[in-house]
Amino acid sequence: MRDDHAPAAAGDPHPGAALAGDATAADVESLRKHSSVYVYEAPVRLWHWVNAAAILVLVATGWFIGSPPPSMQIAEATHQFVFGYIRFAHFAAGQVMAVGFLARIYWAFVGNHHARQLFVLPVWKAHWWREILFELRWYLFLEKEPKKYVGHNPLAQVAMFLFITVGLSFMILTGFALYAEGLGADSWLYHAFGWVLTLFGNSQIVHSAHHLGMWAIVIFMMIHIYVAIREDIMSRQSMVSTMISGHRSFKDDRPG
Amino acid sequence: MSQIETFYDVMRRQGITRRSFMKYCSLTAAALGLAPSYVPKIAHAMETKPRTPVIWVHGLECTCCSESFIRSAHPLAKDVVLSMISLDYDDTLMAAAGHQAEAALEETIEKYKGNYILAVEGNPPLNEDGMFCIVGGKPFVEQLRHAAKDAKAIISWGACASYGCVQAAKPNPTRATPVHKVITDKPIIKVPGCPPIAEVMTGVITYMLTFDRLPELDRQGRPAMFYGQRIHDKCYRRPHFDAGQFVEQWDDENARKGYCLYKMGCKGPTTYNACSTVRWNEGVSFPIQSGHGCIGCSEDGFWDQGSFYDRVTDLTQFGVEANADRVGMAAAGVVGAGVAAHAAISALKAAQRKTQSKNEDA
Ligand code: HEM
Ligand code: SF4
Ligand code: SF4
């Protein structure tokens, strides 16, 4: 029996059988019958795009919360709620993102094994480390040909773990702590998140940390989008369409 | 008559009439947010309970807390509480001085062991064995420890005693340390502010003297009745904040119209204090009302939060002389340039490979 997650051995007689990353025997079997593997189930894809939209709204409105737009004189202050709506959009998107994140964690338990990649780094596997090294070399133009992956490649997995799993958790924690301040010290949200404020000591530091977190997420987005498009063009597998259809297809059936 | 006087005895001795005394009780109840039914309870407690002695000590400080305290709006509260305090020990307010004063301190500690309240203004510096603050020939930290040992409870007056304030600002050469980090085995109530509002100070002290217990404290050990909300939550300029109408520059038209000071760095959204409700100088005004943003004086480490006049402040906690936006934009710029360069090389390599394979095919 082959280890469920071990890469299929090179020199496998079946074309297209040798895959790196988290491909299982079942994936390979599927590829033998179809030209693609079903990787991202509908809830994962839905979450990806809802999350992306929420983050776009959060970054735009978050920027304005730190540096408000020029003062406007549309109506009397009582009837004008410009900054209020900006903050409202931020809090609404923040809550959508938080609920989505919880749902995504739930899906890691009930979904297919690719759905767990975001939350568990297989640091105990030697081939995972070898593939990280390989990916680094690929991005440094030291490898001629990339490997084929069904799920995320290990380097992408590390980035997603740091910026999405850890990063979004941090944004949700600090965001809800700040939100709880507005609701008041006797609100249930403050009872749930007030410890974050105590940990930082001064709410101004929480604002700064939350603000820095935005830039971390923006930088991740830049790299993420660039790499997704680049790999779509230069790698041997589909990328962008996979997050739309859920299917990963491969451009050649040479091994490894 | 009992050996120890009651509060009422002291007041009568100070020449306060019964009528004024009842007024004081109702005003105190109102200031503490208690129902009118509490007025007779306060009066009864004052008439029957032996007065609680207060020892007031001074470490590294500027005396702004005392200055604020003696300007309490309600003259009775001030006179009564003040006279009760100066009966015991306060080296700034008491008549005695020098050896006489130190003797008074020892006497109070001895006489009221375990029963007195220790009020601390300022904080002890710990570097060089506390030599940066000497009281009565000894480091202040020793006096503090000595007086705290038999105290029932401790009040940390102001930002200094509560959080360290300016003398603890980075790099804090004397290692000025807030009281709760030196005295760890006593109930401590923090009344931060630079200085705290006079009514808040007399309110806290009256509550403790009459009810013989600490008021309800929040997460950081501050009395919830005065520090439960941010300046921003009760600021009268808040409608302009929500409307998106800000002072853009000092003395611009919007400043004259009294718009929100958020863009001028107002720290009201991150500061817990009662200024926007109780106000200052007998309720006349408070900083924002006179056109200047809140500087966050009642928050932990308020000197180390960057400029008072920036909304997105410099990241002094991380030792960076730039704010989150400048750090973030610089990083995003570097990454963006990296991505562009990487994309260019990728395209070149791809083109190279294509010509290569074409040549091989040919
Ligand atoms: C990708 C996620 C997020 C980004 C990029 C983001 C960005 C920002 C930024 C840049 C600020 C301004 C900070 C300042 O300088 O004062 C901010 C403030 C804030 N954010 Fe977020 N945020 C995110 C998630 C959240 C979440 C999940 C919540 C929870 C509801 C939240 C709630 C808040 C609150 C309450 C404030 C303070 C608003 C105020 O003081 O008026 N944020 N956010
Ligand atoms: S002036 Fe300051 S406290 Fe008042 S609404 Fe504006 S930001 Fe808030
Ligand atoms: S408005 Fe802010 S800075 Fe001014 S006294 Fe009140 S808490 Fe301190």
Walk me through this protein's architecture:
- Chain A is an all-alpha fold and about 260 residues long.
- Chain A is built from eight helices and two strands; from the N terminus they run αβαααααααβ.
- Chain A has helices at about 25-35, 40-65, 80-110, 125-140, 155-185, 190-200, 205-235, 240-245, and strands at about 35-40, 245-250.
- In chain A, strands 1-2 form a two-stranded antiparallel sheet.
- By secondary structure, chain B is an alpha/beta fold.
- The interface between A and B is large, with 46 and 53 residues.
- One iron/sulfur cluster (SF4) binds near residues 231, 271, 275 and 295 of chain B.
Keywords, separated by commas or semicolons:
heterodimer; A: 256 residues; mainly alpha; Fumarate Reductase Cytochrome B subunit; 2 domains; two-stranded antiparallel sheet; 8 helices; 2 strands; B: 362 residues; alpha/beta; five-stranded parallel beta sheet; two-stranded antiparallel ribbon; 14 helices; 7 strands; elongated; binds protoporphyrin IX containing FE; binds iron/sulfur cluster
